[in-house]
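Encode chain A's predicted structure.
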Amino acid sequence: MNIVEMIPHQLYIGGKIKNSDLEFIYNHITAIINLRTEPDLLPFNFNQIVMVWTPLTISSTPGVNWTIKMTKLISRLIDSKHIVFLHDTIGIQRLGFVITAFYMYRFNLTRDQALALIRQKKSNINPPENYMNLLLEFEATLQRS
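Encoded structure for chain A:
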């Protein structure tokens, strides 16, 4: 299983959903946020699961407004008692960006504080430079609000 628990019983992260992940997802997850450029196709009835598909690419950063909306969405899902699985294809770069932004928003952390905390649970998180720069913009936006 390639799923890492980030907030106990509330938020999990990982790469592309594999067959070994399906039982856990079926039994525990109530919301999936997919950052991949391809939609998730689960082999079971997932009508009861909130499915959010918001494709990101490595080369094109989405901007501060998108980042604010995404972090608020994840927060609302968790506050509504959903158990969230956030994933991309490999679980390192785009996922690293979004989970870092979420930690910054949710726990009032700087980019570097959030990354350090996240890497304690998933050491290979590594947002690319363009996303690291966006996280600095997001940090400044959070400090102003």
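Residues 12 and 136 are 24 Å apart (CA to CA).
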